[in-house]
Every structure is written in C-alpha cells, then in structure tokens.
Write a structure and sequence with these properties.
Elements lengths: L3 H68 L14 H9 L8 H31 L5 H31 L8
Helix pairs in contact: 1-2, 1-4, 3-4
Length: about 180
C-alpha cells in the first residue's frame, strides 16, 4: 500500500511543481502578449494621430490655396488635396482596431476615417463638375460657388477633426461640444 508519508514526500511536491510550472508558463505568455499589444496599441494611436495631423494640414492647404486661384481667375480642374486614409483603412480592415479597448476612441477613429473618405469623394465630385463646366455659360460663377463650398466644407471638417483629435488624445472630455 501507499504510505501517506511517502505520498507527501514524493508525489505531492512533484505534482505541485508541475502545476506551478504550467501556471508560470501561461502567466509569462499572457504578460508577453499584454506587453506586445500595449506597444502595438501605442504605435497605432501615434500613427493615427500623425495621419490626422497630416489631414488637418491638407484642410489648411485647401483653405489657403483656393482663394488665391480664384482671385487670379484660374479655375482648377484638378484638386491635388486628398485626405490620407492608409492607416484608417489598414487598422479597420485588418481588425487591429480591436486592440483599442476604449470604444469611444474606436468610434472616433472610424468617424474620422469616414469623414476624410467623404471629403475625398466631395473633391472627386467637384472635379467632375468643374470638367463638365468647361466652355459653358456661367462656368466661372458656378465654379466659384462650388470651390467656395469646398473651402467652407474644409474649414468645418477641420474644426470637427481637431475636436476628435483632442478627444482621441484624451485632452478634451468626451461630451465636449
């Protein structure tokens, strides 16, 4: 028969050692994953903030250059200011956005990406309209109206994106309007 003394001296310490080694290994794996996700999350948020800042500069460029072109009597058929969407599209399509635990920040990132994408579509639409206006009566007047609308849109969206950037960085309360 198995003596309780032998059991306590041999089997129990080995069993407890094996259990502790598994717990240590799983705990180490969890900690490594946690650190990796934390670094990935920080890098992703930094990339998003940089892309948002680049888009803000593009909004500024639109507001700054179009009045100069209109005052010179030039009607640009090609508008080279497209919002950058590479980071937004990558993190949403790859599913990396799930690393951001804060649902409000996820929502802000998605909204900013959608807003910039819509603005790019507005620029494409404006170019198509400007091309169709070439050689038509009142073309200059209609082009001025459309380009002024584009500038107003850029100013409004810049303010909104700046507010969202502050919320994303945590500088402004989520309910600030």
């Amino acid at each position: 028969m198995l003596d309780i003394g032998v059991f306590l001296q041999t089997f129990l310490p080995v069993f407890v050692g094996v259990i502790l080694s598994f717990l240590l290994w799983f705990g180490g794996q969890w900690f490594i994953g946690y650190r990796r996700n934390k670094k990935a999350r920080a890098a992703m948020l930094q990339e998003i903030e940089e892309e948002i800042l680049m888009n803000i500069h593009l909004y500024d460029d639109i507001v700054r250059t179009i009045p100069g072109l209109l005052s010179q009597g030039e009607i640009p058929v090609y508008i080279p200011y497209r919002m950058r969407l590479e980071v937004y599209q990558y993190i949403v399509k790859s599913g990396e956005i799930r690393l951001i635990n804060d649902m409000h920040k996820q929502r802000l990132i998605r909204l900013t990406g959608h807003l910039c994408s819509s603005f790019n579509a507005f620029i494409d639409n404006t170019e198509a309209i400007l091309v169709t206006l070439i050689g038509k009566q009142n073309a200059v007047k209609l082009a001025h109206i459309r380009l002024n609308g584009l500038m107003e849109q850029a100013e409004d969206e810049k303010k909104l994106v700046l507010q969202w950037l502050k919320e994303l960085q945590g500088d402004a309360p989520a309910n600030e309007k």
